[in-house]
Amino acid sequence: MKKKSRLIFAAIILFFAAVSAFLACIVIYKNRHNPAVTINVYNWGEYISDGTDGSLNVNEEFTQRTGIHVNYSTFSSNEALFAKLQNGGTKYDVIIPSDYMISKMIALGMLQKLNFDAIPNFSYIDDSFRGLEYDPTNEYSVPYTWGTVGIFYNKKLVLEPEDKITWDILWDPKYAGKILMFDNPRDAFAISQFRLGIPLNSKNKEDWLSAAKELKSQQPLVQAYVMDQIFDKMANNEAALAPYYNGDAALLTQKNKDIGFVIPKESTNRFVDAMCIPKNSEHFDEALAYINFMCDPAIATENIKHIGYSSPETAVKNRLDPEVATSKICYPDDSISKNTQVFTYLPDDINSLIDLLWINIKTGEQKDPFGLVAVLIGFIVVYLAVLFIKRKPNS
């Protein structure tokens, strides 16, 4: 009888052990990443280590480590990214916009709050890159890279020595037809604002009109408004001058030894690009895994080595070639840094004005933008008045 009882007791123990093991397997299954998943990652062009020139293909490495596949595509400007997300269609899981666009998308409810418990490598992000103006509560984004804006110049075509190059050179008539300009309004307006001493985030409409007037006067000198096209145009000696991001200095100077890069001393923009998860992402956990992977110092170092931008991680900077880590282009000293300004999200009325002014600048039209605004406001007032009259009950 005792033997039988012992057998029954043992069977009960085995049963509960089996149930516990089964439940544990379910928990593990639910919490592991689904290797059959493909995440959609949307990033700037020329902005990731992709296996070319002997570099590490970080997306393939991510897939090898996790089994999660990456569908990777690129955009050319923050405005293009915003338009794509706003129009719907493709659902992205990880996007990498810039500071001011991040704050705009936060305000519009387009981003998800991140689960930082699933991003332990966030601990490597320096304190100086946390809680910045565009994400003050540090809930929606993880810094990817940072940098400044300067001027690329062709040493054979530009007569001025480097220490004499300022933003004014982009308005010099002797370089007419040889000047490239940013094909996005915030960066283009910023250069005009630097010249006029106007704050980058001014909420005064007159300031934006003044900056637009300067850009309008520059327009006849501009060969083309470009973004990624700068690489081919400057490398092939098709242009003499082009404002662009410091992280591309290494790439462009390698393609053409006659190209130099200078950060004007008057002032410049310091930008931060960061990884975010859109509200409509269908693979939140896998997106978090990707962000955590990209913050791994070993992976981030390989990425930075290839793309040339500055890292928000000291652990990465310390792994770089000393020549790069001490470069004033990649990691500017205080004399440059103290004069930088960061973009923030502007009120809707200012953004609408900028968009209108930008169209006016690029199309070369001479119409008064405030006149256009007045016409639009008048139309809206009349339309609302008609609606009110139609809805008013009969007396």
Can you tell me about this structure?
The chain has helices at 2-31, 58-66, 78-87, 99-107, 185-196, 205-218, 230-235, 249-255, 284-295, 297-307, 314-317, 322-325, 334-337, 348-363, 369-391, and strands spanning 38-44, 69-75, 94-95, 142-154, 179-182, 222-226, 241-245, 259-262, 268-275, 340-341. The protein is α/β, with parallel strands linked by helices. The strands form three sheets. Strands 4, 7, 8, 9 and 10 form a five-stranded mixed beta sheet that branches. Strands 2-1-3 form a three-stranded parallel beta sheet. A two-stranded parallel sheet has the order 5-6. Strand 1, helix 2 (58-66) and strand 2 form a beta-alpha-beta unit. Helix 5 packs across helix 6 (205-218). The protein is globular, with a radius of gyration of 26 Å. The model is unreliable at 1-7, 16-32, 366-372, 378-383 and 385-395 (pLDDT under 50).
Please specify the SSE layout and strand pairing.
Layout: H1 2-31, E1 38-44, H2 58-66, E2 69-75, H3 78-87, E3 94-95, H4 99-107, E4 142-154, E5 179-182, H5 185-196, H6 205-218, E6 222-226, H7 230-235, E7 241-245, H8 249-255, E8 259-262, E9 268-275, H9 284-295, H10 297-307, H11 314-317, H12 322-325, H13 334-337, E10 340-341, H14 348-363, H15 369-391
Parallel strand pairs: 1-2, 1-3, 5-6, 9-10
Antiparallel strand pairs: 4-7, 4-8, 4-9
